[in-house]
Amino acid sequence: MNNFEVTFDDYKGWFEKYKKNNDVREINFQNEVVKKFISAICADLDVENSEKKGPDTAKHDYLQYCGTYIDKTGKEKAFTPDLVIAKNWNWMNKEYEVEYRAIVEVKSPYQQPIYNKNYEKYGENLKNELRRHLSAKNNDKVILTDAMKWEFYKKNEEDNELVPIRTIRLYDLSGGGGKWEWKKGEQGIVENDVIKGFGDNLPYTKPIEEFVELKNFLKEFLNNEE
């Protein structure tokens, strides 16, 4: 994916593949849309799957990038995110220094959509997930997305309110019932020197502003430039 310029058509194609195949499991959007996109935009960073916790080991500290929860037996356990974004990822993070840039919580837009509600309306389960992620020792940033809406969160020691620092929507709602359509580029006109003087100009479609914004802000967010 290095040096691969992702277009909005590329992104929509990845998404629409699983929509058309009626295979709308979260793992598909996680690995084949979100992970692929971040890996292409930030090719110098490692984007690693982490949704399934492995066995405890003396060489790996989950709490560097994970929050915790209390299980049914009253034991505190690591709450793993779907994806971890890091510089110089190494599983043996007790021996090697890893620079964590963010974690990603992915939802299926068809099974657990977030695009159809504002963050104030999220259920307590999702809010608790975000709080746990933001309580990790060495990571203070969370990306929440269903591949349609992208929200960016940052730990705020003074305020425990879950308010995204940026929200980017790649869709427009169209009517009721959660119906939506992809953002469309505005039409523009550019003069053509070859045919100039004959009264004709060339129409073109401008880039999708929100998609350009997403790519630019993702780089800023993950490189601590926001």
TrEMBL record:
Q: The organism sits in which domain of life?
A: Bacteria
Name of the protein = Uncharacterized protein
Q: Please tell me the species this chain comes from.
A: Sutcliffiella horikoshii
